[in-house]
Write a structure and sequence with these properties.
single chain, 7% helix
Length: 110
């Protein structure tokens, strides 16, 4: 017997109103009856990307400008998919003559 089920998180809200995208119960239209031995496999798992890699509590970065001058800046909280993306978030336009960031695509280093 071959069977494929899709179990979305919002399918049974009338029966399980507390369902969340990360924790839910799905009511099947009819009971499954499996006779003899069988196998069960999870073939696909989809989850939304809902977290930040830079959050409001850990986004402070410090810079030593020389001349006994140290500054601190907060990186905007958010999800930064690539290193160049986060470098744009860190950019300090008012100090561009003293601080620059360059990402080397070959070595993957800043």
């Amino acid at each position: 017997m071959s069977l494929y089920l899709t179990l979305p998180s919002d399918n049974s809200m009338a029966y399980f109103p507390e369902n969340k995208i990360s924790h839910y119960i799905t009511r099947l239209p009819s009971p499954l009856q499996v006779h003899g031995e069988g196998e069960l496999a999870l073939t696909q798992f989809i989850y939304p990307h809902t977290w930040y890699d830079v959050n409001e509590k850990s986004n402070l970065i410090g810079f030593d400008l020389g001349d006994n001058k140290v500054i601190g800046r907060r990186v905007p909280p958010g999800f930064y998919e690539t290193v160049p993306d986060i470098l744009k978030g860190i950019a300090l336009e008012e100090f561009r003559d003293k601080i620059t960031f360059k990402f080397n695509e070959s070595t993957k280093r800043v």
